Fold this sequence. Notes:
The structure holds two protein chains of two kinds. Chain A has helices spanning 16-24, 80-95, 111-122, 139-145, 164-172, 215-218, 220-225, 244-254, 271-286, and strands at residues 51-53, 70-77, 99-105, 128-134, 151-155, 181-185, 202-208, 228-232, 259-262. Chain A folds into two domains: 1-46, no CATH class; 82-286, Rossmann fold, CATH 3.40.50. The longest helix of chain A is centred in the first third of the chain and has 16 residues, at 80-95. By secondary structure, chain A is of the alpha/beta class. By secondary structure, chain B is an alpha+beta fold. Chain B has one domain: hypothetical protein PF0899 fold (2-Layer Sandwich), CATH 3.30.2320.80. Chain B contains two helices and six strands, in the order αβαβββββ. Chain B has a three-stranded mixed sheet, with helices on one face. In chain B, strands 4-3-5 form a three-stranded antiparallel sheet, with no helix packed on it. In chain B, helix 2 (41-52) links the parallel strand 1 (26-34) and strand 2 (61-67). The two termini of chain B are 31 Å apart. The chains are: A alpha/beta, B alpha+beta. The interface between A and B is large, with 48 and 43 residues. Strand 2 of chain A pairs antiparallel with strand 6 (105-112) of chain B, so a sheet runs across the interface.
Amino acid sequence: MCTVCGCEAAVMEEKPHQERLAAAAGAPVRDHDHSHSHAQDHHHHGHTGGIIDFGGGLAGAHVPGMSQDRTISIERDILSKNDAFAHANRTRLRNSGVFALNLVSSPGSGKTSLLVRTVTHLKDQWPIAVIEGDQQTSRDADRIRATGVPAVQINTGKGCHLDAHMVGHALDHLSLGHGSLLFVENVGNLVCPAAFDLGEAHKVVVLSVTEGEDKPLKYPDMFAAADLMLLNKADLLPHLDFDVSACLAAALRVNPRIQCLTVSARTGEGLAAFYSWIEQRASAMADPAGGPA
Amino acid sequence: MHEISLVESIVELIEDERRKHVFSRVCMIRLSIGALGHAEPEALRFCFDAITRGTIVDGARLEIETVAGEGWCSGCRQTVPLEERFASCPVCGIAEVRMTAGDELRLTEMEVE
């Protein structure tokens, strides 16, 4: 059975939405376009070559009914469906002792390079898996897999962000043992992913020093949603006019609780602090009663 | 353009309502959108017709109520208007203001027949 939507049968190719509608409502799903082949505990979503394709559109149908004009009060958060899937993911990850980070940034800030360096450093001590989100191609997942770490690529099609439903299905494709690290690299976009909780422990926002130091003020939602900011490409600072302290002040103005680390994915500068930030929290997730060893 | 996803989520919520109420058509839906929130009303309007076509919401009128930003200023000990999500208090100019309104993203009601 699909552990996210609960459906008993098959495929998800053209109309992922119908399945989402029924799944989130807890309705039995019998006739959706969603194929699950479970021979190896594995199923498909327009899934070729390790890519899960969520580019399909909305489909619905009118059901005739009879009634008079009337007003129905609803009063629900528009994101409540996503939040329900995110809650399910978070519970599932916590029960498995898996520490999950959601990496968000503009395109080109160096998220994938940071991840490649990070998983290469940590993979001997921790079981690791990566979920990569991009509109198209499996190039990022290929870079991760080249390190020996398993990766699932989600292609969002026209979508500009990952949502919790996509991540839930990607989790079905990964075998995450107790005490694993899970990195989710979101679609490169400093606006849209801020609104969509995926069920992660923390959002980590990556900003590179080749961008403006006032970016936290221009795109406050993402910096407000993140718990850690990595200021990447620090090796380029001698060649730029980037004002690190102004950037940190901007981030703290938007989010007084955000932690900041200045790093370089290229040289490794500052990454030891990021690794220990991860390991402290991952240890606590894997052994909640353990406390500091 | 995550407003596309938001409109898809609205359709899902209305599909939920159809399991509770009998109706054949949605004439109007009303949203409550915070001025400092995650959605841009014009972008919602822009994609609404395209995304709802062929769904139960097809042809519905979209009404959006904008909720102005407000926050609680710990210095003034009062609710003050907020123009930006993380602005300082417009009255005392200093204190941290905790946003109390303006982040809404709600489907409030609909008219059906």
